[in-house]
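Friendly challenge for the regulars: who can give me the structure tokens for this chain first? No prize, just bragging rights.
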Amino acid sequence: MSEREPGTSRPKPLQRAFAVPVRAMNRFRGTIDEAPDGAGHQRTASSVVDCGVYVAGKRLAGRFSPDEALRVACSHEDGFVWLGLHEPGLDEMTEIAQTYGLHELAVEDAVKAEQRPKLENFGTVHFLVMRTARYVPHHEITETSQVVETGQMMVFVGEQFVITVRHGDASELGSVRADLETTRAALLEQGPWAVAYAVTDRVVDHYMMVADQVEADLDIIEEGVFSRGAASPIQAIYQMKRELVEFRRAVVPLQRPLATIVALVPKRIGKYFRDVQDHLTRTVEQVSSFDDLLNSILQARLAQVTVDQNNDMRKIAAWAGIATVWTAAAGVYGMNFLHMPELKWLYSYPAWWAITLLVSVLLYRAFRRNGWL
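First reply, four minutes later:
Bragging rights claimed.
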């Protein structure tokens, strides 16, 4: 398919038909905020979180709609737009795509938010997809605990604009924007790729924080497995393994897109992406070691269960052996044969008890000495 040029196509009627219920549901859920337009009046519910125009690293005063912001940015040689969206609907995303010349396939991916981390090139527009991660606090790990919550972050990078699309609550960008506008204004002078770096850096920083907190959870699980008290249940260990797999799916696939970006962007911004790449590599190594450690913990717990079962079976067998003495003695002397000399002896009954108890005690001592009881 050919790339869509700004203002040259209209959304299809079928797309509009499906988009209406999407926006209605978003309004019902309350995920769409009210955003002011360029004249300062409140517009209808929108997924636009912020829309700023930057010239020479400085944000221009005033409020702009997405189309006004692009016109203002294009009037300056070193200007660009940073448009932030949160869970946009198909109809609104389609309108923005017409204004900024976004490819329809990328628009579909940005709305569905079910993509694997990747970097795609649509002419002069680059489309980066990342999965965000957030640690979910909990008192203890059970078979139903949620440890890692994931979302999606999409970044459209053009010559004079950058559009960030966020799904989920992880990796908010308000503090990133504020930091760039105040303490790192010099970085903004390098254009849209500087914003893409800051967003990617925030996502990877959250990976590192999640990895550190997951490591603490693994230490608790490991301590519980090898403690003398009640060991961690296998269900909790397996649930932790599933959460770790979810985290791994967010972290590991991002390596290839980042490597491509490092080779793609100018050298002055590439060094920043290399720093992010180093942090990501460290997190990937951590996640791999977590997986190996969790497998070892799971195997150790399964071995403990097997040993416990063997110990239980040995105890049952030992007591069954002791009970067999009494069963055999009672069976022999319960047959009531006429010619059993022991029956007519005066001390037959006390002797039966004494011999049976003596054999039982000897068996008990033998089992205790061998570790069966």
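The first strand starts at residue 48 and ends at 55. The radius of gyration is 35 Å. Your move, everyone else.
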